[in-house]
Design brief:
Layout (H helix, E strand, L loop, with lengths): L15 H4 L10 H5 L11 H4 L3 H16 L9
């Protein structure tokens, strides 16, 4: 049996913050931060979101700050 090789088209993920030229990720912008979290409250990885490493570090720090002052939950049950 011969397997057919299927070619899939994958769109290259891009950093949303670099594209919009955002220098600082604000921890008070809860609506934007929620889009980088799962429904259970976990932070999505770079691999899934496509953010660059610099902005992923800023994003993680912003989410953790928002959690510390109760703008975002640590977990959702």
């Amino acid at each position: 049996m011969q397997q057919t090789s299927q070619r899939r088209f994958f769109r290259k993920k891009y950093c949303r913050f670099c594209a919009e030229k955002i220098d600082f990720i604000d921890y008070k912008n809860v609506k934007m931060l929620r889009s980088f979290m799962t429904e259970r409250g976990k932070i999505l990885s770079r691999k899934m979101t496509g953010t660059c490493s610099r902005h992923q570090r800023q994003l993680t720090k912003a989410i953790k700050r928002a959690r510390a002052i109760a703008l975002l939950p640590y977990i959702e049950i």
